[in-house]
Amino acid sequence: MKAFELIAEMGHEQLVLCHDKASGYRGIIAIHDTTLGPALGGTRFWQYKSDDEAIVDALRLARGMTYKNAVAGLNLGGGKAVIIGDNRMVRREMIFRAHGRFVESLGGRYVTAEDVGTSTADMDFVHMETDYVAGLATRSGDPSPVTARGVFRALQASACHRWGSDDIAGRTVAVQGLGNVGTYLCAELHAHGAKLVVTDIDASRIKHAVDTFGARAVDLEQIYGVKADIFAPCALGGILNDDTIPQLTAEIVAGAANNQLLKQERHGVDIEKRGILYAPDFVANAGGVINVYSELAGWTSQRALRKADEIYETTLGVFEIAREQGIPTYEAADRLAERRLQAVGGLVRTWPQWPRKS
User: Fold this and answer.
1) Can you give the pTM of this predicted structure?
2) Which of 128, 156, 304, 305 is 20 to 30 A (C-alpha) from 51?
3) pLDDT tens-digit map of 86-101
4) What are the angstrom distances between the C-alpha of 160 and each of 23, 148, 228, 324, 328?
5) Is 2 part of the annotated catalytic residue set?
6) For residues 132 and 134, what is the distance between their CA atoms, to the nearest angstrom?
7) What does the alpha-carbon distance between residue 335 and residue 63 come to, in Å, rounded to a whole number?
8) What is the largest CA-CA distance in the chain?
9) What crossing angle do the helices spanning 93-105 and 120-127 adopt, rounded to 10°?
10) Which entry of 21, 49, 68, 80 is annotated as an active-site residue?
């Protein structure tokens, strides 16, 4: 891997490789852009096939956080961390304390939180070593309910744009992935009268969705081609690709997973050609980072939910930009984010600063 060429191509400021021999910790922290503020993004714990795969994932996720925070109107830049290893391990304290020390070493340029494979309990371990962590159990806690609320609002906005009404009663929604966010999303959908088709790698989660929400379960690979009005990917990224896009029967894709388009420029166009309305992932799933920001800004949980409700209007705004400029929705979302980055980045700096550093 040509790391410097890759960082330059993707526009990152910093890539940090971290290792602690005593705990066996191997981590990567990627900082994409700090124009709007300190880089914020969760820590993902995953068994990657190679170090290169882990680095690329961290870089892609960090870039996505820059755009997500910008579109959500938050004063935060974009960053992400990944820890390489088995996230099912039981003894976790030393791994996450080591991670906290490396986060602390960045002096506030990066603020972490939970992500795939990590929990609020893990963040409590991180907090033993640094204050640059959010999503703590004793503060804003699990961001999943707020993330799910935002995805639901993006889904409603998509329905309004496509069908002229955001009422989803009687609509069939295929939900891929029943982790915390996917399950909370199912609860929102069920409460509003939607019919659910679900899949997950965990049989107990499927059983819960079937028993609680009256969902119909299908095999992992069947979820793409199942007859549905809306497809909601809530697992890992890269699931919209050459193999899966031709299988889709849904008119709308709106879900919580990050980086849903395997190759953004190619598959964002492919899904558009199929006549499928795509709600860009970093717009739809911004509720989680809104929840984390609420902790940093001292907001109440009610204010965080109200901010997540704004994703409805933001999603409609993305669709309007796409219509006006004749571009795919993924590109319209990028332009909305870049517009804010340029506006804030172009503000006049006042000098001299005080106290002087030299």
Assistant:
1) 0.85
2) 128
3) 999 999 999 999 999 9
4) 51, 18, 17, 17, 18
5) no
6) 7
7) 14
8) 67
9) 60
10) 80
